């Protein structure tokens, strides 16, 4: 290990020891929790603690696909795409697919992009236009974001990485390099970076990342009935995260993974009118098929979101009686939500839509019961639901590993070569042992201050740290 690597690992270990979150749960009770992401890919079960997820595979040259489902949002959509190309280190390897849902007279996403492109790269042509794929649709026929995201997936070709963002987003300079580096820090080929991006206001004046905060999803709105679909409470801020934090929730505003996640786990197109609950559905699909969600750290926060409230914002719910009648809408919505309840083993009344279950919900890698336990949701009593903010989540080994092994030739969950992971863990342990001493020299901090800070961190962590049982590795 080189000196530079040692310094990097030592600094990351020291910083990670201070990764914490504040959350208000139960409501009115302020809590603080320190995460330990160094061990998040280690199963809690001591008998399985030698197992690890498959390591990341990154080709030297790779393309990135950005998917956008835009609903009557042409100006912001064009700006989002412009920042993706203009601020990329390698724009020639960036490709965009847009499901642009508009009505006559609306701004068109690709046209708004070309206005900005021609101002940035003067000339007769709209630069990078040939790398943008458009699926133009009548907004009056829209039946919600879930169907639009399925349509967006059909624009993916042979790209290595796939990203999904909202139409009102913004990229930072060098984002395409840094997001792949952040994904690699999950140390998991099946990792998915996802959260609600921070607001534009968090971007520094020089277009740099915030120095402290990153976003994390870990809470739910209270469910009054057991049949209610879990809905994300909103984002929480993690302080000083330098590695991706394992999460139990997928956020639709940002998703980044290998494209095999999008191709192997297609979004369910039979979820007409589903908005509240679409993110828990996608979490379920990904996690039960072997993928793990991680919130990007502050080092990987390169996409931001326009959270400005717009009273006159156009919504797909305007189409309830525009393309049909209320009774037809209500029936389609009920069938879709009952389909979602059926998948989650939640009780429901009435009919459901069970078409093409084998396509959109093929045999899983992990079970539904494992998923509910991992995400803290009860299918018996909603009072037993728990948030995941105040616990360090850990990787759950696959119940049917052969499905992932078929995807990744040469990797086997029970017969894997863990030397790379073991060496990395040893380096982290070595760095942790010498971190305090190393930091004295690096930052020339006064001895008393360093000892005091170390004592406070150690006291807090000793109260909250997870106990790990050493086991022999294969």
UniProtKB/TrEMBL annotation:
Identify the keywords attached in UniProt to this record, alphabetized: Membrane, Signal, Transferase, Transmembrane, Transmembrane helix
Membrane-spanning parts: 438-459
Question: What molecular function terms (GO) are annotated for this protein?
Answer: transferase activity
Under the heading Pfam families, the entry gives:
GlcNAc
- Please list which residues make up the signal peptide: 1-18
- Please give the name of this protein: GlcNac transferase
Organism, scientific name: Thraustotheca clavata
């Amino acid at each position: 290990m080189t000196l530079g690597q040692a310094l990097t690992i030592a600094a990351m270990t020291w910083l990670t020891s201070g990764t914490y979150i504040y959350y208000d749960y139960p409501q009115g009770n302020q809590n603080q929790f320190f995460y330990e992401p160094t061990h998040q890919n280690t199963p809690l079960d001591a008998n399985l603690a030698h197992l690890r997820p498959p390591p990341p595979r990154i080709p030297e040259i790779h393309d990135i696909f950005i998917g956008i489902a835009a609903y009557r949002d042409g100006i912001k959509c064009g700006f989002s795409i412009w920042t993706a190309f203009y601020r990329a280190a390698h724009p020639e390897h960036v490709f965009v697919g847009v499901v642009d849902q508009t009505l006559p007279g609306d701004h068109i996403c690709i046209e708004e992009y070309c206005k900005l492109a021609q101002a940035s790269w003067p000339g007769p042509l709209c630069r990078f236009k040939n790398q943008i794929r458009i699926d133009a649709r009548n907004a009056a026929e829209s039946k919600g974001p879930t169907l639009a995201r399925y349509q967006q997936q059909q624009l993916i070709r042979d790209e290595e990485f796939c990203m999904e963002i909202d139409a009102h987003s913004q990229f930072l300079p060098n984002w395409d390099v840094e997001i792949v580096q952040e994904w690699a820090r999950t140390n998991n080929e099946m990792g998915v970076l996802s959260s609600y991006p921070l607001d534009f206001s968090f971007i520094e004046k020089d277009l740099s990342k915030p120095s402290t905060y990153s976003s994390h999803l870990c809470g739910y709105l209270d469910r009054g009935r057991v049949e209610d679909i879990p809905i994300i409470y909103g984002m929480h801020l993690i302080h000083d995260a330098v590695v991706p934090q394992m999460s139990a929730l997928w956020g639709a505003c940002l998703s980044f993974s290998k494209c095999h996640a999008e191709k192997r786990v297609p979004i369910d197109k039979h979820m007409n009118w589903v908005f509240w609950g679409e993110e828990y559905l996608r979490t379920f699909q990904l996690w039960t098929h072997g993928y793990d969600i991680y919130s990007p750290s502050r080092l990987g926060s390169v996409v931001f979101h326009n959270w400005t409230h717009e009273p006159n914002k156009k919504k797909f719910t305007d189409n309830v009686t525009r393309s049909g009648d209320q009774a037809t809408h209500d029936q389609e919505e009920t069938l879709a939500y009952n389909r979602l309840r059926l998948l989650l083993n939640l009780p429901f009344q009435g009919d459901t839509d069970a078409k093409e279950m084998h396509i959109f919900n093929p045999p899983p890698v992990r079970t539904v019961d494992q998923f509910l336990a991992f995400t803290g949701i009860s299918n018996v009593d909603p009072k037993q639901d728990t948030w995941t903010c105040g616990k360090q989540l850990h990787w759950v080994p696959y119940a049917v590993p052969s499905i992932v092994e078929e995807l990744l030739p040469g990797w086997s969950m029970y017969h894997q070569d863990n030397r790379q992971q073991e060496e990395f863990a040893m380096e982290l342990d070595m760095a942790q042992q010498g971190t305090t001493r190393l930091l004295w020299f690096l930052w020339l901090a006064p001895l008393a201050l360093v000892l005091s800070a170390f004592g406070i961190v150690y006291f807090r962590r000793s109260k909250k740290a997870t106990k790990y049982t050493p086991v022999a590795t294969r």
